[in-house]
Amino acid sequence: MTRESPPFRADHVGSLLRPAELKQARARHQNGEISAAELQAVEDRAIESLIAAQAGIGLRSATDGELRRSMWHFDFLENLDGCEPFTPPQGIAFKGVATKPKGVRVAGKLGFRGHPMLDHFRFLRDHTRAVPKMTIPSPSVLHFRGGRKAISETIYPHLEDFYRDLGAAYNRAVQAFAGEGCRYLQLDETNLAYLCDPDQRAAIRVRGDDPDRLPLIYANMINAAIADRPADMRVTMHLCRGNFRSSWIAQGGYEPVAEILFNTINADGYFMEYDTARAGGFEPLRFVPKNKMVVLGLVSSKTGELESKDSLKRRIDDAARFLDVDQLCLSPQCGFASTEEGNLLSEAEQWAKLARIVEVASEVWR
């Protein structure tokens, strides 16, 4: 069964490994050796190459690989009205490794009056014949990452006002992308998956938040963000448990958030991490309604080992015990480079995995 609208039977989350030329150019720009315009020229060439490579293996959607970003979330959030970047004492801790120290906090009233990533989308739109896909962090990221301490109590003494304004600012962002022709938008939502991990839930309680209340708070904020979008605009959500230098943060199956995730949030589809036992079983897919799609993230973006076609087909069959196979698609479990450093595999291994996804999808859904 061919899908004419996203998500597609063979799809991918978004970020791709940065080519060596681009990494070198970014380092030179940071050292003041080349201008912003010279860096952008390198980015443009690299993105055009990625677009061609995605088309070459048969993907029906295209992203810019998030090549213009340093990190998947902060680059978007710090450009919202009321947000500012800052340098925390330490980076985000993963299993055995940490990111560089970088953060975003709320220092003013939230809003949206334009954004550099609108230009990023325009470039993608103008250079692909595939469906251009835009990826941005879910609004929940601005709260979950820093909590109350990262939100000015002077500006927002009551968090209910923060949630309202953030949903409204995101809605203006979604409408702006729609106005530029975006009809495939992905919200990267790590936090609902984190709230399935007992250790993450305990940490949330220690800082004063209620992990039992947050899923519904986040769901309502996401719904506000994507309300009144064009009828032909497909919105998907990507869920994972952390992705930096092939490491991770959280574990636990989707059961604690499944009903809210699938039946309260008004998304059209879900990219679900399912490459290891850390993500639990397929049983939560029984909550998915008939009008929604699930993209099974069965291919790991964290290792170079290529999954066999037979193993992927067996796992698709396992998932189809809980959700009609016509509601399923296939993708990697996460991006290949959620940050500019990238995961620990080669570009050749990355493209082999994406080609394998296209190959398996063509055989399963002919």
Count of distinct structural domains: 1
Q: Output the CATH class name.
A: Alpha Beta
Terminal residue distance: 6 Å
Q: How many E-type strands?
A: 12
Q: Strand share of the residues?
A: 15-25%
Structural class: alpha/beta
Shape: globular
Weakly predicted, low-confidence segments? none
CATH topology: TIM Barrel
Mean pLDDT, rounded to whole units? Answer: 97
How much helicity do the residues have?
25-40%
H/E series = HHEHEEEEHEEHHEHHHEHEEHEH
Work out the radius of gyration: 19 Å
Trace the largest sheet across and list its strands.
Answer: 7-8-9-10-11-12
The main β sheet shows up as: 6 strands, parallel
Please give the CATH architecture. Alpha-Beta Barrel
The total of helices stands at: 12
Describe the structure.
- By secondary structure, the chain is of the alpha/beta class.
- It has a single domain (60-364), classed as TIM Barrel (Alpha-Beta Barrel).
- Helix content is 37%, strand content 15%.
- The protein has helices at 20-30, 36-56, 74-77, 116-126, 140-144, 159-179, 191-194, 198-206, 214-226, 258-263, 309-319, 347-364, and strands spanning 61-62, 81-86, 93-94, 97-98, 103-111, 131-132, 134-137, 184-188, 234-239, 269-273, 293-299, 328-332.
- It has a 6-stranded parallel sheet with strand order 7-8-9-10-11-12.
- It starts with 19 loop residues before the first helix and ends with a helix.
- The mean pLDDT is 97.
